[in-house]
């Protein structure tokens, strides 16, 4: 069953999570190359303390510490004192949340994690800190009462723990994504710094790659940035960096064999002219030629999708044949334990094609339902908790959708979306979520897989 939120006034004041989740936007001057090891060491080389990763208004306690763009510094809110919420005291008993917050910091700044993978253990650890209070020696006032004050202190601690975890969950989508992007930027900067220290020069043409075979694996992002020195064992990390660099319109850049003599590029949308690399017009020409061919034979130019393979060994650019895709679909997985989940459309859509899977707004007390949400008797049982609906117009558990900040709608069928009476082009932002407030997502379970396409309307 849904539980009433404790100390709602505190929660509202705490909706912005502790410092681990805040990402700065101020760009500060960078220091000279560090000679000490304050900000970590990689490959035996001390790394600079880049101040561009400092959080706005804070000092050295938020400088990078390799391998993290932000060093763990306990529990606090942006602009507050580091570790301000590390400790909680009640009736003479003390509890420390610092290590739980530090582990949560590291999780948010580990590429490839999800908000749930970080926030669920975080909430559990906070509560465990409180429960472990049972092992604290009794205070003098408790000797006669057999621990009454200690029990009350533990209960008060659990209220604080719930408040902190709910605040984190409320902002999880935004702050986790920003932390991931910041971490990707940091790791790229580390790699670029180490390459520069070794005196190596990035390749600028196919011929350069042919003459410098030491670059074991090379990929190029849409902006023309080169990534190199990666093999199969860590290509997942490379993919995360590339996606962060070039945006969510990028698809996978990889095949099972990421070898010495090949670079792989993928062009996801016709408007991606940024695939023209800065120093290689031959690549640009091949891409533009392939795009033109695709648009000529396709009924939907936005659906053109091409792979261009460059062979440094031969010193030539080979393009794949364009394949028109008339009824392409785009699929997304929507997690019941997260709030709004945003995706960028790689092609034009106007309708759901299929919706599969199941979820629940309370996995312990209610059944798994589809996109229509909890109906009938379950809806009646949930009625007293309607304040926990994200949108009061629709049932608990309904699949909610919004495109490009339009009004939220409830996806009930896979028919043409007459509510919008339009198509949404490549690059539009589509958002999905379960109809349940952010503060109540902790006991949810399941996910839905929704596929969108362009249907005749």
Please give a structural write-up.
The protein is an alpha+beta fold and 457 residues long. The chain has helices spanning 8-13, 98-108, 115-131, 142-145, 148-170, 172-197, 206-211, 235-246, 281-297, 376-382, and strands at residues 41-42, 45-46, 87-90, 93-96, 218-220, 226-228, 263-267, 306-311, 316-319, 329-335, 341-344, 351-360, 399-403, 409-410, 429-434, 445-453. It has three domains: 8-179, no CATH class; 201-319, no CATH class; 329-453, Jelly Rolls, CATH 2.60.120. 28% of the residues lie in helices and 17% in strands. The strands form five sheets. A five-stranded mixed beta sheet has the order 6-5-7-8-9, with helices on one face. α2 (98-108) runs antiparallel to α3 (115-131), α3 (115-131) packs antiparallel against α5 and α6 crosses α8. It starts with 7 loop residues before the first helix and ends with a strand. The model is unreliable at 1-35, 199-239, 241-287, 293-327 and 416-421 (pLDDT under 50).
